[in-house]
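To assess whether the prediction recovers the assembly geometry, we first specified each molecular entity separately, as shown.
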Amino acid sequence: MPADLNLRISPRTVQQETVDKLRLAILSGLFQPGSRLIESQLCAQLGISRPSLREALRSLEAERLIEIVPNRGPAVPALSWEEATAIYEVRELLEVEAAGRCASRIAAEQVQELEKSLLAFEEAAASHDSMAQVTTAADFYSIILANCGNPILEEVHRGLVARISFFRGRSMSLEGRAQSSLAEMREIYESIAAGDEKAARKASKKHLLKAKAAAKISMDSGI
Amino acid sequence: MPADLNLRISPRTVQQETVDKLRLAILSGLFQPGSRLIESQLCAQLGISRPSLREALRSLEAERLIEIVPNRGPAVPALSWEEATAIYEVRELLEVEAAGRCASRIAAEQVQELEKSLLAFEEAAASHDSMAQVTTAADFYSIILANCGNPILEEVHRGLVARISFFRGRSMSLEGRAQSSLAEMREIYESIAAGDEKAARKASKKHLLKAKAAAKISMDSGI
DNA sequence: TCAACCAGATTGTCAGACATTCTTGCAATC
DNA sequence: GATTGCAAGAATGTCTGACAATCTGGTTGA
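The predicted structure of the complete assembly is given in tokenized form:
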């Protein structure tokens, strides 16, 4: 038996469930950026006590998914474009690296998985369900990140992407963005499948820059 | 008055104080990796209630400075070398980028500050106070990170460095490491002061690789 | 119109309680 | 002797209830 196999079964606690539910609510846009969260309301909605809720809120605060100002309580932060840009830049750094590493080390089995997720995105892109588009695109990336050989890279990346989920959802519903996104992702996939590290980096960088540009457009237009 | 100036004064809450104290205790090595933290003991030592403590612990858990296993409670994680390597790799990615950006955008005033911190490290390196060495070296980096123009890069970097503080302390007390570290840092400083982005990246990368190697040695020798 | 003020809402923090789970030492069994 | 089973104690997960400090919005008074 491998020594590092963690056999411990972790019972899901109330606080974990709460963190997951709230995180999902934020990422899916149920809580709009800028809106405040009222402890008593959330307790009632979730059917939990205040201490449990507050623990969950502290976790989300540390993840930067909410902000808690003393005596004002928690709120979903409204990202400025400067902050979003900074996140996109770091994300580029990580994602390009991950794509490159992934290309030179991914197993055949995972390549198939990656292809499958690309097809799933293709289907979503054909529809006009921007929620499904964001989800399937996220799956595609997470397979790449999971196969880059560095779990920290994956972890940090996930944290950053979560913080710009708002922009991702809006930019994906931009006219023609899903289709061009599909083309870029296919290029990434081809490079990785071919084991071409350099091409994978290049394709990944191109995709990121376009995604960022799309996010900028959607932000400027929408306000 | 600039619109983005945040004039809100934030009263420091019990939970913030607690997070800071505990974080410092972990970073300074007061709590050894692997050791478990007992809520009741910490409450008594810190003079706070259990709910406040638990909120603070959740924050630290989200920062990955402690691990909380359901029904077993919090503990300081003992980093494996694989995990440490992964962190060093991402840190390299971020730090090299930061050094490069810093070189091409830092103001003269900040260069002076950087020089001052280099001198402080020089002094610490001459002594044999490895605690002071780690602190002053951390100051040096944080000035670079603060001037790279990307606050997210800075934030993520700080989080990663915190998680390997244990290794940093040990490797710095390695024979001759402080002196060679000083030489590497001086090279970084010179490049940045000269505004030479490429050289700054190169020097920064070299420094990181050596730091990582030193950490490996200290780990292998010390168990 | 504007400033002061007051009531309600909300958060920060604590104390205490109890069920569940983990740990550990000891006894019993093979 | 090694292993299993059990029981007591310790520690955690969660809840209820409470109260002071702070914030918010509207009303009153100048």
